[in-house]
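Q&A log
Question type: sequence-to-structure
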Amino acid sequence: MSPSVERDVATILVVDDNASNRSLAQHTLEDEGYHVVLADSGAQGVAAFEERKPDCVLLDVRMPDMDGFTVCECIRALPSGADTPILFLTALRDVETFDRALRVGGDDFLTKPVRPTELVVRVQSALKLRRMNVELRGHYELLKRQRDDLLRLQLQKERLTAFVVHDLKNPVHSMDLHAQVVLRDKSLTASVRDSAVQIRTEARQLTRMICNLLDLSKADEGELAPKKTEFDLSPLVAGVIAEMEMDASNRNVTLKSSINAGSIRADEDLFRRTLTNLVENAIRHAPADTSVTVTASRLVDATEVRVADEGLGVPPEMRERVFSPFVQGESGKHDGGRGNRGLGLTFCKVAVLAHGGRIWIEDGAPGAVFCVRIAHGI
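Response status: OK
Response body:
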């Protein structure tokens, strides 16, 4: 094993033209026992690398005069630079930047703002991978390719999400507007009018699904932040029931509500979509000629909303799993195949947790009761 890997204290070279970024990296890594060398430009970084022979390099992409890609190529051309881990830091989160970082010899890819915990974990992983590179080169290459493939898939998923949200939202909205125009024609037959109303209902459902997908993507990145305001629950619940009335009627299900909660402080849009998803889920599993009931109560320190149906219910062992994406109960079992067929219930849990609240399922005897509790607060 090379002397640089065997040293008790690993040396990390941080190359970044931003003083705040250098300071954050320095304090974070020194707190973990690493020795940190700083460089505020690409040229200074190459010189520091030649002089100090660090065990790992943190390299900013965007720098004046010499960018991070050029610095990486220079380091890789040095006699001692071929095997040193180089971790790129960038605010650019796209496939092109990631692929270029790989082409010039980068080992990892972190997006700004970098969380201190993630930075430490990535540096530790890079140093461990270097030891693996010395000891088990073949295994290292396999793991690296697998990790690169997974990260590329993640970036492509994010791009697809952006495409779905920004490119599909407008045509769906246009569908809804055209349906409204059709409904203004007083000469429509009853069947045509019903079809136009159904188009509007399905368009709103598709819009809700698109928004759910966007919010789940935001939650994955830690960016889902509810914009809380004070609003009255009664008209919100009435609006949700009115929106879902046709779907319930088509299934011979009656929608009921009992609201004794007054106002609540939450993100009105997120809360409305949460309730709509729960009501839609209840309608889907309610037998014909039964009811779905929405109740709301004001407790001492929280507001609780409950959506109950009279279906087969959710077995205790499934009550956490149904909030995972695309979970479906086994066909023919006593749960009736009840599960989260898409992302609706997953979104509900993410949205409630973003409010600092709680969501759970109780036995309705018969049926299931989905419960949401949001604490009072500023």
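Response note: The chain has three domains: 3-135, 166-220, 229-375.
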